[in-house]
Amino acid sequence: MNVIVLMKFIDQLDRIVELEKIPERIVSLVPSQTELLYDLGLGDRVVGITKFCIHPEVWFRNKKRVGGTKNFKVEVIRELRPDLILANKEENTKEGLEELARTIPVWISDVKHLPDALGMIRSVGLMLDKIDEAEAMVSMIEGKRLACSGLVKRKCAYLIWRNPYMTIGGDTFIHEMLAHAGWENVFGKELRYPSIGIEDLASCDAEVIFLSSEPFPFKEQHLKEIEEGTGKQAVIVDGEAFSWYGSRLLHVWEYFRKLNNQLS
């Protein structure tokens, strides 16, 4: 009689995820976690990604796409026969994940702070037998973060959307990354992603308004629109640097230092 020994892991929603073996067919529904899988050396074990998983480009061009992060196709995912799905509370729809979790192990991240991101990296490494690589990555991220510490704090507003304008509250990962980058979010007392008007941007005490390159792709014409409507300086910034919480964290600190120096 064969005895199946289950490995049990706790995801970031405190859910128990049971695996019968080290996963060999992984579907990632989160762009930043897809990039992490690549940097952990798991190319042959990832069988599905979303249409927004643009890094690395070789995966974007060649891996099976299962839809978007919100409207992923459950049947397409099932046809891939995954033995693990990596998801995120905020980026994926709860109903879709619950449907998948009835028959497939689904590990869900919930990242609001840098320690959450580092914990996610460790957990993924542990589940996928890449714990040494994950720990080395975390150590490198911490080292680079410390080398970037000590930046003078100045005030900013950060926009992620247009029509309506949407900013970020104090309970978001972007808010925390702004702080690490030397910026105080003037809408930090708000929660999640509140809608605001041009008059709110004009009257706030931000020294500069950051326009993120994602999810709304702000361009130069939008920058001029903001500057004319508020009388404040506006800058288009790399949204991935502020919002991606996987291995992208290896590369953001020098960008933050350069941005800080550029606007000093």
Give a written overview of the molecule.
- With 264 residues, the protein is of the alpha/beta class.
- It folds into two domains: 7-110, Nitrogenase molybdenum iron protein domain (Rossmann fold), CATH 3.40.50.1980; 154-262, Rossmann fold, CATH 3.40.50.
- The protein is 38% helix and 20% strand.
- It has helices at 31-39, 57-62, 74-79, 94-101, 114-127, 131-147, 173-180, 198-203, 220-230, 239-243, 252-262, and strands at 7-10, 16-19, 26-28, 46-49, 64-65, 84-88, 106-109, 154-161, 165-167, 183-185, 195-196, 208-212, 233-237.
- The longest helix is centred in the middle third of the chain and has 17 residues, at 131-147.
- The radius of gyration is 20 Å and the shape is globular.
Any key phrases for this structure?
264 residues; alpha/beta; Rossmann fold; 2 domains; 20% strand
Entry summary:
By secondary structure, this protein is α/β, with parallel strands linked by helices. The chain has helices at residues 31-39, 57-62, 74-79, 94-101, 114-127, 131-147, 173-180, 198-203, 220-230, 239-243, 252-262, and strands at residues 7-10, 16-19, 26-28, 46-49, 64-65, 84-88, 106-109, 154-161, 165-167, 183-185, 195-196, 208-212, 233-237. Strands 8, 9, 10, 11, 12 and 13 form a 6-stranded mixed sheet that branches. A 5-stranded parallel sheet has the order 5-4-3-6-7, sandwiched between helices. Strands 1-2 form a two-stranded antiparallel ribbon.
